[in-house]
Amino acid sequence: MRTEIIAGVTTFFTMAYIVVVNPAILSADGTGLPFSGVLTATVLVCVSMTLLMGLYARLPFGVAPGMGLNAFVAYTLIIGQGIPWPVALGIIFWAGVLFLAASLTPLRERIALAIPDSLRIAAAAGIGLLLTFIGLQNAGFVAANPATIVGVGPLDHRVLLCLVGLFVSARLGRAGNPLAYLAGIFVVTAAAWAGGWVDLPARWISPPDFSSVLFKLDVGGALTWSLAPAIVTVLMTDLFDSLSTFIGVAHAAGLTDERGQPVRLREGLIVDAWATLTAGLFGTSSGTAYVESIAGIRMGGRTGTTAVVTALCFVPCLFVGPLAAAVPAYATSPV
Known about the structure:
mainly alpha, two-stranded antiparallel ribbon, 15 helices, globular
């Protein structure tokens, strides 16, 4: 039990950065989504779905809104295509419904296996490039340019502090420190506060925001033919993401059966599907199993108890809205 608890806490620290990063991406200028509401939704997904992963699937995986899909929803669907955010949440919901239907049958594995490896890798690389560009943009490395669309940004404190945070996170990550991402965010935020570039929050804690985005999705508005490609894109991206995580982590941690297949894969995929569906209801982008779970597994976590501990660790995060909102965008850019 002691080992499982340590593993659960370790997994929490490796993925706790999402509590700040996900609201920062989804509440970017032009989306209309409130930071506080998305933060509450993010924590609700982390707590409920990680708890379900532990109690139902009995696997030591943490679940949270996925990096990549949050950027796709914010910058491609809402800002790029001008889709209202309630409709975008409806897209997430319907992708989750299809996801769940596929997960209850062998269809999901068949679809995944039918896609060539090169195309799966290309999709992952494309999402990675999108995230990289957003990080460079939030840190000020690149800026809008009327002639070339994208130009070089000014060399100011944002760029320098981002490089410091990147160095801290990379150095600690290389050493296997579970606090690597959080340490980078903390160092840059502290420097921004000390330099007077960001105002300190008027209060450090506040009650959760259950009114702004919770159950505010437009389910009917998302059911139009013009939005069908967006639903399919979310569905397929989520499918590849979760399958890659389950298969990759299971093989790396030895959580496989005698045939070399991940143990309780079907149950894990069903939880992952529910994470997408409920994310749309709560007010955030698709939830998925996190590859950072490998940190807790390497600490000895092998059962659902690890996931239950991770879920409980996320509960206090419901009350840190003002503190999270005081973290500048260039502090999360290194992540």
